[in-house]
Design goal:
Length: 473
Protein backbone atom coordinates (compact mmCIF):
# COMPACT_ATOMS: atom_id res chain seq x y z
CA UNK A 1 0.00 0.00 0.00
CA UNK A 2 1.31 3.42 -0.91
CA UNK A 3 2.28 5.58 2.04
CA UNK A 4 2.66 9.31 1.69
CA UNK A 5 6.24 10.42 1.99
CA UNK A 6 7.62 12.87 4.51
CA UNK A 7 7.14 15.81 2.15
CA UNK A 8 3.70 16.13 0.59
CA UNK A 9 3.14 17.68 -2.81
CA UNK A 10 3.54 21.41 -2.88
CA UNK A 11 2.22 23.98 -5.31
CA UNK A 12 4.12 27.22 -5.46
CA UNK A 13 2.61 30.35 -6.97
CA UNK A 14 3.19 34.06 -7.07
CA UNK A 15 0.57 36.76 -7.36
CA UNK A 16 1.60 38.80 -10.35
CA UNK A 17 2.78 42.34 -9.58
CA UNK A 18 -0.18 44.66 -9.82
CA UNK A 19 -0.68 48.28 -8.92
CA UNK A 20 -2.19 48.73 -5.49
CA UNK A 21 -4.39 51.63 -4.45
CA UNK A 22 -2.27 54.75 -3.94
CA UNK A 23 -1.37 55.65 -0.36
CA UNK A 24 -2.97 58.68 1.32
CA UNK A 25 0.24 60.66 0.82
CA UNK A 26 0.24 59.78 -2.86
CA UNK A 27 -3.40 60.81 -3.17
CA UNK A 28 -2.67 64.15 -1.51
CA UNK A 29 0.22 64.76 -3.89
CA UNK A 30 -1.96 63.72 -6.83
CA UNK A 31 -4.75 66.11 -5.81
CA UNK A 32 -2.27 68.95 -5.50
CA UNK A 33 -0.94 68.26 -8.97
CA UNK A 34 -4.45 68.00 -10.33
CA UNK A 35 -5.53 71.33 -8.84
CA UNK A 36 -2.48 73.16 -10.17
CA UNK A 37 -1.77 71.53 -13.51
CA UNK A 38 -4.86 69.58 -14.51
CA UNK A 39 -4.94 65.80 -14.63
CA UNK A 40 -1.56 64.08 -14.40
CA UNK A 41 -0.72 60.41 -14.31
CA UNK A 42 0.54 59.37 -10.84
CA UNK A 43 4.06 57.95 -10.97
CA UNK A 44 4.61 54.31 -10.08
CA UNK A 45 6.36 53.41 -6.85
CA UNK A 46 8.55 50.42 -5.94
CA UNK A 47 5.96 49.66 -3.28
CA UNK A 48 3.38 49.05 -6.01
CA UNK A 49 5.22 45.95 -7.29
CA UNK A 50 6.68 42.75 -5.97
CA UNK A 51 10.40 43.07 -6.64
CA UNK A 52 12.35 40.54 -8.66
CA UNK A 53 14.56 39.90 -5.64
CA UNK A 54 11.59 39.04 -3.45
CA UNK A 55 10.09 36.69 -6.02
CA UNK A 56 13.38 34.97 -6.87
CA UNK A 57 14.19 34.36 -3.20
CA UNK A 58 10.84 32.80 -2.31
CA UNK A 59 11.30 29.24 -3.57
CA UNK A 60 11.55 26.24 -1.22
CA UNK A 61 14.76 24.31 -0.49
CA UNK A 62 14.78 20.78 0.94
CA UNK A 63 17.50 18.69 2.55
CA UNK A 64 16.03 15.15 2.38
CA UNK A 65 16.96 12.31 4.71
CA UNK A 66 20.13 10.43 3.73
CA UNK A 67 18.21 7.36 2.59
CA UNK A 68 16.72 9.43 -0.25
CA UNK A 69 20.10 9.59 -1.99
CA UNK A 70 19.36 13.23 -2.80
CA UNK A 71 21.33 15.68 -0.69
CA UNK A 72 19.42 18.83 -1.60
CA UNK A 73 16.56 19.99 -3.82
CA UNK A 74 15.74 23.59 -4.85
CA UNK A 75 12.58 24.73 -6.63
CA UNK A 76 10.96 27.91 -7.89
CA UNK A 77 7.98 28.95 -10.01
CA UNK A 78 7.60 32.43 -11.48
CA UNK A 79 4.29 32.88 -13.25
CA UNK A 80 3.39 34.95 -16.28
CA UNK A 81 -0.31 34.07 -16.14
CA UNK A 82 -2.65 35.53 -13.49
CA UNK A 83 -2.73 32.09 -11.87
CA UNK A 84 0.36 29.97 -12.42
CA UNK A 85 -0.22 27.02 -14.72
CA UNK A 86 3.04 25.40 -13.55
CA UNK A 87 3.16 23.30 -10.40
CA UNK A 88 5.69 20.99 -8.76
CA UNK A 89 5.24 17.89 -6.59
CA UNK A 90 8.08 16.40 -4.55
CA UNK A 91 8.06 13.24 -2.44
CA UNK A 92 11.07 11.89 -0.51
CA UNK A 93 11.37 8.61 1.43
CA UNK A 94 10.42 8.83 5.08
CA UNK A 95 13.09 8.14 7.67
CA UNK A 96 11.09 5.52 9.57
CA UNK A 97 9.98 3.25 6.72
CA UNK A 98 12.63 0.96 5.25
CA UNK A 99 10.35 0.06 2.34
CA UNK A 100 10.45 3.66 1.15
CA UNK A 101 13.46 3.96 -1.12
CA UNK A 102 12.25 6.04 -4.05
CA UNK A 103 12.09 9.78 -4.47
CA UNK A 104 9.57 11.33 -6.87
CA UNK A 105 10.02 14.77 -8.40
CA UNK A 106 7.42 16.00 -10.86
CA UNK A 107 6.81 19.21 -12.76
CA UNK A 108 3.53 20.01 -14.49
CA UNK A 109 3.21 22.74 -17.12
CA UNK A 110 -0.45 23.50 -17.70
CA UNK A 111 -2.18 25.35 -20.50
CA UNK A 112 -5.71 26.59 -21.10
CA UNK A 113 -5.93 27.16 -17.35
CA UNK A 114 -4.36 25.42 -14.32
CA UNK A 115 -7.11 22.84 -13.71
CA UNK A 116 -5.28 19.83 -15.14
CA UNK A 117 -1.81 20.73 -13.86
CA UNK A 118 -3.23 21.28 -10.37
CA UNK A 119 -5.01 17.92 -10.49
CA UNK A 120 -1.88 16.08 -11.64
CA UNK A 121 0.17 17.76 -8.94
CA UNK A 122 -2.21 16.38 -6.33
CA UNK A 123 -2.70 12.88 -7.73
CA UNK A 124 -0.32 11.61 -10.44
CA UNK A 125 2.78 10.94 -8.35
CA UNK A 126 0.80 9.08 -5.72
CA UNK A 127 -0.93 6.95 -8.36
CA UNK A 128 2.35 6.08 -10.12
CA UNK A 129 4.03 5.26 -6.80
CA UNK A 130 1.12 3.04 -5.81
CA UNK A 131 1.31 1.16 -9.13
CA UNK A 132 5.07 0.59 -8.82
CA UNK A 133 4.78 -0.56 -5.20
CA UNK A 134 2.54 -3.44 -6.33
CA UNK A 135 5.21 -4.93 -8.61
CA UNK A 136 7.07 -8.05 -7.46
CA UNK A 137 10.61 -7.24 -6.36
CA UNK A 138 12.23 -9.24 -9.16
CA UNK A 139 10.66 -6.86 -11.69
CA UNK A 140 11.83 -3.83 -9.75
CA UNK A 141 15.43 -5.02 -10.02
CA UNK A 142 15.26 -5.98 -13.70
CA UNK A 143 16.02 -2.48 -14.89
CA UNK A 144 18.98 -2.23 -12.52
CA UNK A 145 20.50 -5.48 -13.73
CA UNK A 146 20.02 -4.47 -17.36
CA UNK A 147 21.68 -1.10 -16.83
CA UNK A 148 24.41 -2.46 -14.56
CA UNK A 149 25.58 -4.69 -17.40
CA UNK A 150 25.24 -2.01 -20.07
CA UNK A 151 28.27 -0.29 -21.54
CA UNK A 152 26.14 2.84 -21.89
CA UNK A 153 25.11 3.05 -18.23
CA UNK A 154 27.83 5.53 -17.31
CA UNK A 155 27.69 7.71 -20.40
CA UNK A 156 24.16 8.78 -21.26
CA UNK A 157 20.46 8.21 -20.87
CA UNK A 158 19.16 5.03 -22.49
CA UNK A 159 15.60 3.97 -23.29
CA UNK A 160 13.95 2.21 -20.38
CA UNK A 161 11.82 -0.69 -21.62
CA UNK A 162 11.58 -2.68 -18.39
CA UNK A 163 8.47 -3.56 -16.42
CA UNK A 164 8.65 -0.47 -14.20
CA UNK A 165 8.68 1.80 -17.24
CA UNK A 166 5.70 -0.02 -18.71
CA UNK A 167 3.92 0.45 -15.38
CA UNK A 168 4.61 4.20 -15.45
CA UNK A 169 3.30 4.48 -19.01
CA UNK A 170 0.14 2.58 -18.12
CA UNK A 171 -0.44 4.77 -15.05
CA UNK A 172 -0.06 7.98 -17.07
CA UNK A 173 -2.52 6.80 -19.71
CA UNK A 174 -4.96 5.42 -17.15
CA UNK A 175 -5.15 8.75 -15.33
CA UNK A 176 -5.68 10.66 -18.57
CA UNK A 177 -8.32 8.24 -19.84
CA UNK A 178 -10.25 8.63 -16.59
CA UNK A 179 -10.08 12.43 -16.70
CA UNK A 180 -11.45 12.75 -20.24
CA UNK A 181 -14.08 10.01 -19.93
CA UNK A 182 -17.56 11.28 -20.87
CA UNK A 183 -19.75 8.34 -19.81
CA UNK A 184 -20.97 10.12 -16.64
CA UNK A 185 -21.86 13.15 -18.73
CA UNK A 186 -23.71 11.39 -21.54
CA UNK A 187 -25.73 9.31 -19.07
CA UNK A 188 -27.24 12.51 -17.66
CA UNK A 189 -29.08 15.46 -19.16
CA UNK A 190 -27.54 17.95 -16.75
CA UNK A 191 -25.41 20.70 -18.25
CA UNK A 192 -24.13 21.56 -14.78
CA UNK A 193 -22.91 18.01 -14.31
CA UNK A 194 -21.17 18.16 -17.69
CA UNK A 195 -19.37 21.43 -16.97
CA UNK A 196 -18.19 20.32 -13.54
CA UNK A 197 -17.27 16.78 -14.55
CA UNK A 198 -15.21 17.88 -17.57
CA UNK A 199 -13.54 20.92 -16.01
CA UNK A 200 -10.15 19.19 -16.04
CA UNK A 201 -10.61 17.63 -19.48
CA UNK A 202 -10.90 21.01 -21.22
CA UNK A 203 -7.62 22.11 -19.64
CA UNK A 204 -4.29 20.50 -20.47
CA UNK A 205 -0.88 19.86 -18.98
CA UNK A 206 2.54 18.49 -19.75
CA UNK A 207 4.05 16.17 -17.14
CA UNK A 208 7.72 15.56 -16.37
CA UNK A 209 8.39 13.00 -13.63
CA UNK A 210 11.74 11.78 -12.29
CA UNK A 211 11.90 8.71 -10.06
CA UNK A 212 15.11 7.91 -8.21
CA UNK A 213 15.69 4.53 -6.56
CA UNK A 214 18.30 4.74 -3.81
CA UNK A 215 19.08 1.00 -3.82
CA UNK A 216 19.75 0.67 -7.54
CA UNK A 217 20.88 4.28 -8.12
CA UNK A 218 18.68 4.37 -11.21
CA UNK A 219 16.98 7.60 -12.20
CA UNK A 220 13.99 7.22 -14.50
CA UNK A 221 12.61 10.22 -16.35
CA UNK A 222 9.11 10.12 -17.85
CA UNK A 223 7.97 12.94 -20.13
CA UNK A 224 4.63 13.82 -21.65
CA UNK A 225 4.91 17.19 -23.41
CA UNK A 226 7.64 19.77 -23.94
CA UNK A 227 9.21 20.20 -20.52
CA UNK A 228 12.79 18.93 -20.21
CA UNK A 229 15.12 17.10 -17.83
CA UNK A 230 18.90 17.52 -18.06
CA UNK A 231 21.66 15.92 -15.99
CA UNK A 232 24.98 17.54 -15.15
CA UNK A 233 27.94 15.27 -14.36
CA UNK A 234 31.27 16.57 -13.17
CA UNK A 235 34.46 15.62 -14.98
CA UNK A 236 37.50 15.12 -12.76
CA UNK A 237 41.06 16.03 -13.67
CA UNK A 238 44.01 13.77 -12.83
CA UNK A 239 44.43 15.45 -9.45
CA UNK A 240 40.78 14.76 -8.56
CA UNK A 241 39.50 18.30 -8.98
CA UNK A 242 36.36 19.21 -10.93
CA UNK A 243 37.25 20.00 -14.52
CA UNK A 244 33.91 21.06 -15.96
CA UNK A 245 30.60 19.26 -16.39
CA UNK A 246 29.16 16.91 -18.98
CA UNK A 247 25.63 17.49 -20.28
CA UNK A 248 23.20 14.57 -20.49
CA UNK A 249 19.81 15.45 -21.96
CA UNK A 250 17.38 12.97 -20.41
CA UNK A 251 14.27 13.84 -22.42
CA UNK A 252 13.39 15.03 -25.89
CA UNK A 253 10.87 17.85 -26.26
CA UNK A 254 7.68 16.40 -27.72
CA UNK A 255 6.67 19.17 -30.09
CA UNK A 256 6.41 19.95 -33.79
CA UNK A 257 10.20 20.34 -34.01
CA UNK A 258 10.82 16.74 -32.92
CA UNK A 259 11.24 14.54 -36.04
CA UNK A 260 10.06 11.42 -34.19
CA UNK A 261 6.83 13.12 -33.18
CA UNK A 262 6.23 14.36 -36.72
CA UNK A 263 6.66 10.83 -38.09
CA UNK A 264 4.34 9.43 -35.41
CA UNK A 265 1.60 11.96 -36.16
CA UNK A 266 1.88 11.58 -39.94
CA UNK A 267 1.73 7.79 -39.60
CA UNK A 268 -1.34 7.92 -37.36
CA UNK A 269 -3.11 10.55 -39.51
CA UNK A 270 -2.08 10.02 -43.15
CA UNK A 271 -3.09 12.75 -45.56
CA UNK A 272 -3.88 15.28 -42.82
CA UNK A 273 -1.98 18.49 -42.13
CA UNK A 274 -1.52 17.83 -38.42
CA UNK A 275 1.77 19.75 -38.15
CA UNK A 276 1.70 23.29 -39.51
CA UNK A 277 3.81 26.38 -38.81
CA UNK A 278 5.69 24.64 -36.03
CA UNK A 279 2.49 23.66 -34.20
CA UNK A 280 0.54 20.44 -33.67
CA UNK A 281 -3.11 21.18 -34.42
CA UNK A 282 -2.39 24.72 -33.25
CA UNK A 283 -0.64 23.70 -30.02
CA UNK A 284 3.06 23.80 -29.18
CA UNK A 285 3.33 20.28 -27.75
CA UNK A 286 2.61 16.91 -29.36
CA UNK A 287 1.66 15.07 -26.16
CA UNK A 288 -0.33 16.20 -23.14
CA UNK A 289 -2.79 15.27 -20.43
CA UNK A 290 -6.29 16.60 -20.95
CA UNK A 291 -6.92 18.69 -24.08
CA UNK A 292 -9.88 16.41 -24.66
CA UNK A 293 -11.06 18.32 -27.73
CA UNK A 294 -8.08 16.75 -29.53
CA UNK A 295 -8.87 13.25 -28.23
CA UNK A 296 -12.64 12.82 -28.21
CA UNK A 297 -14.25 11.38 -31.33
CA UNK A 298 -16.08 13.80 -33.61
CA UNK A 299 -19.37 12.12 -32.65
CA UNK A 300 -18.80 12.75 -28.93
CA UNK A 301 -17.81 16.35 -29.56
CA UNK A 302 -20.97 16.96 -31.57
CA UNK A 303 -23.10 15.58 -28.72
CA UNK A 304 -21.33 17.76 -26.17
CA UNK A 305 -21.80 20.80 -28.40
CA UNK A 306 -25.49 20.18 -28.98
CA UNK A 307 -26.52 19.26 -25.42
CA UNK A 308 -23.86 20.17 -22.86
CA UNK A 309 -22.39 23.60 -23.68
CA UNK A 310 -19.48 22.00 -25.48
CA UNK A 311 -17.30 23.65 -28.11
CA UNK A 312 -18.06 23.55 -31.81
CA UNK A 313 -16.11 20.80 -33.58
CA UNK A 314 -13.03 22.26 -35.26
CA UNK A 315 -12.99 22.15 -39.04
CA UNK A 316 -9.66 20.29 -39.14
CA UNK A 317 -10.82 17.63 -36.67
CA UNK A 318 -11.01 14.44 -38.77
CA UNK A 319 -9.42 11.45 -37.04
CA UNK A 320 -8.85 12.13 -33.33
CA UNK A 321 -7.10 11.42 -31.02
CA UNK A 322 -4.20 13.65 -32.08
CA UNK A 323 -2.58 14.03 -28.66
CA UNK A 324 -1.59 11.31 -26.20
CA UNK A 325 -0.54 11.27 -22.56
CA UNK A 326 1.76 8.28 -23.03
CA UNK A 327 5.23 9.29 -21.81
CA UNK A 328 8.64 8.57 -23.26
CA UNK A 329 10.92 7.15 -20.56
CA UNK A 330 14.71 7.08 -20.24
CA UNK A 331 16.98 5.84 -17.47
CA UNK A 332 20.47 6.65 -16.26
CA UNK A 333 22.58 5.36 -13.39
CA UNK A 334 23.41 8.18 -11.01
CA UNK A 335 26.93 8.95 -9.82
CA UNK A 336 27.84 10.90 -6.71
CA UNK A 337 28.00 14.60 -7.54
CA UNK A 338 25.44 14.48 -10.37
CA UNK A 339 22.68 17.06 -10.47
CA UNK A 340 19.30 17.02 -12.20
CA UNK A 341 17.57 20.03 -13.75
CA UNK A 342 13.85 19.78 -14.48
CA UNK A 343 12.12 22.77 -16.03
CA UNK A 344 9.12 23.84 -18.05
CA UNK A 345 9.56 25.26 -21.54
CA UNK A 346 9.48 28.75 -20.06
CA UNK A 347 13.10 28.19 -19.00
CA UNK A 348 14.20 26.34 -22.13
CA UNK A 349 12.89 29.17 -24.31
CA UNK A 350 15.61 31.27 -22.66
CA UNK A 351 18.49 28.88 -21.93
CA UNK A 352 19.98 25.90 -23.76
CA UNK A 353 20.57 22.61 -21.94
CA UNK A 354 24.31 23.31 -22.02
CA UNK A 355 23.88 26.77 -20.55
CA UNK A 356 21.69 25.43 -17.74
CA UNK A 357 24.22 22.77 -16.75
CA UNK A 358 27.08 25.26 -16.99
CA UNK A 359 25.18 27.74 -14.83
CA UNK A 360 24.55 25.18 -12.09
CA UNK A 361 28.22 24.20 -12.27
CA UNK A 362 29.10 27.87 -11.87
CA UNK A 363 26.69 28.13 -8.94
CA UNK A 364 28.27 25.11 -7.23
CA UNK A 365 31.67 26.81 -7.30
CA UNK A 366 30.29 29.30 -4.76
CA UNK A 367 27.69 27.16 -2.99
CA UNK A 368 28.92 23.58 -2.71
CA UNK A 369 29.41 24.09 1.04
CA UNK A 370 25.63 24.40 1.44
CA UNK A 371 24.88 21.35 -0.73
CA UNK A 372 27.31 18.60 0.23
CA UNK A 373 27.18 19.08 3.99
CA UNK A 374 26.24 17.29 7.19
CA UNK A 375 24.95 20.54 8.71
CA UNK A 376 22.59 21.94 6.05
CA UNK A 377 20.90 24.61 8.15
CA UNK A 378 24.15 25.91 9.59
CA UNK A 379 26.06 25.82 6.31
CA UNK A 380 23.20 27.28 4.30
CA UNK A 381 23.26 30.32 6.59
CA UNK A 382 26.99 30.85 6.10
CA UNK A 383 27.95 34.05 4.38
CA UNK A 384 28.42 33.43 0.69
CA UNK A 385 31.25 34.62 -1.45
CA UNK A 386 30.15 37.89 -2.97
CA UNK A 387 30.40 37.40 -6.71
CA UNK A 388 29.97 40.57 -8.74
CA UNK A 389 31.45 39.18 -11.93
CA UNK A 390 29.49 39.07 -15.18
CA UNK A 391 29.97 35.83 -17.10
CA UNK A 392 29.68 35.06 -20.80
CA UNK A 393 28.54 31.76 -22.25
CA UNK A 394 32.08 30.55 -22.99
CA UNK A 395 33.08 31.05 -19.34
CA UNK A 396 30.61 28.44 -18.08
CA UNK A 397 32.34 25.30 -16.69
CA UNK A 398 31.46 22.77 -19.37
CA UNK A 399 33.54 19.86 -20.62
CA UNK A 400 32.82 20.85 -24.22
CA UNK A 401 32.94 24.63 -24.79
CA UNK A 402 29.81 26.38 -25.97
CA UNK A 403 29.66 27.68 -29.49
CA UNK A 404 29.63 31.38 -30.25
CA UNK A 405 26.55 33.46 -29.51
CA UNK A 406 25.53 33.82 -33.14
CA UNK A 407 25.76 30.08 -33.76
CA UNK A 408 22.52 28.50 -34.91
CA UNK A 409 22.77 25.82 -32.20
CA UNK A 410 21.27 28.34 -29.77
CA UNK A 411 17.67 28.54 -30.93
CA UNK A 412 16.23 29.94 -27.71
CA UNK A 413 13.83 32.68 -28.83
CA UNK A 414 13.46 35.10 -25.94
CA UNK A 415 16.84 36.83 -25.66
CA UNK A 416 16.72 37.87 -29.34
CA UNK A 417 13.12 38.99 -28.76
CA UNK A 418 14.34 41.20 -25.89
CA UNK A 419 17.18 42.57 -28.08
CA UNK A 420 19.91 41.79 -25.53
CA UNK A 421 22.92 39.45 -25.44
CA UNK A 422 23.17 36.71 -22.86
CA UNK A 423 25.26 37.72 -19.86
CA UNK A 424 25.12 35.74 -16.64
CA UNK A 425 25.56 36.39 -12.90
CA UNK A 426 26.06 34.19 -9.82
CA UNK A 427 24.27 35.88 -6.92
CA UNK A 428 21.57 33.55 -5.60
CA UNK A 429 21.58 31.12 -2.68
CA UNK A 430 19.11 28.84 -4.53
CA UNK A 431 20.12 26.98 -7.69
CA UNK A 432 16.56 27.24 -9.01
CA UNK A 433 16.55 31.01 -8.47
CA UNK A 434 19.99 31.22 -10.09
CA UNK A 435 18.70 29.53 -13.25
CA UNK A 436 15.51 31.59 -13.31
CA UNK A 437 17.36 34.89 -12.88
CA UNK A 438 19.74 34.07 -15.72
CA UNK A 439 16.85 32.93 -17.90
CA UNK A 440 15.06 36.24 -17.32
CA UNK A 441 17.78 38.76 -18.07
CA UNK A 442 20.83 37.60 -16.15
CA UNK A 443 23.25 40.48 -15.72
CA UNK A 444 20.71 42.96 -17.08
CA UNK A 445 18.96 43.65 -13.77
CA UNK A 446 16.70 46.27 -15.29
CA UNK A 447 15.45 43.74 -17.84
CA UNK A 448 14.83 41.16 -15.10
CA UNK A 449 12.83 43.66 -13.08
CA UNK A 450 10.89 44.74 -16.16
CA UNK A 451 10.03 41.19 -17.21
CA UNK A 452 8.78 40.27 -13.76
CA UNK A 453 6.84 43.54 -13.49
CA UNK A 454 4.87 42.68 -16.63
CA UNK A 455 1.31 41.64 -15.83
CA UNK A 456 -1.09 39.43 -17.77
CA UNK A 457 -1.99 39.51 -20.61
CA UNK A 458 1.05 41.48 -21.82
CA UNK A 459 3.45 39.30 -19.83
CA UNK A 460 2.78 36.29 -22.09
CA UNK A 461 4.15 38.19 -25.06
CA UNK A 462 7.58 38.38 -23.44
CA UNK A 463 7.86 35.31 -21.22
CA UNK A 464 6.08 32.17 -20.08
CA UNK A 465 5.54 30.64 -16.66
CA UNK A 466 8.92 29.35 -15.50
CA UNK A 467 9.02 26.28 -13.27
CA UNK A 468 12.42 24.92 -12.19
CA UNK A 469 13.61 22.12 -9.92
CA UNK A 470 17.28 21.26 -9.27
CA UNK A 471 18.20 18.09 -7.35
CA UNK A 472 21.74 17.27 -6.19
CA UNK A 473 22.85 13.66 -5.73
Amino acid sequence: MFKRFTHAAFKFRHVMPRRRSPSSAALTEFKNHYSLKGFQRPRWSDEDYLSAEKILSSGPIWFPAKRAGIVRCDALIVNANPESEDSIAVYFPSTDDEDDRRSYMALFDGHNGPAMSDFLCDHLVEYVASAISKLPQQYELSGYLEMHNSDESNSSAIPADDVISDTIKHAFKEVDDAMIDVSDVLSSTSKTNAIRTLRHAHSGSCALMSIYDTDTQILRVALTGDSRAVLGRKVLSKDGKTNGYQVHVLSQDQNAHNPKEIVRLETEHPGEEVVKNGRVMGWGMARAFGDAAYKWSVDIQEKLYEKYLGDRVRSNMKTPPYLTAEPEITSIRIQKGDFLIMASDGLWDCLTSEEAVGLVGLWLANNSHSVYTDSPVKDFARKRLKDEKIYTRDELPLKAPLKKENDESDKTPYYPWWHVAKRFVNRDSSAAAHLTRNALGGADTDLTEALISLAHPRARKYRDDVGVLVAFF
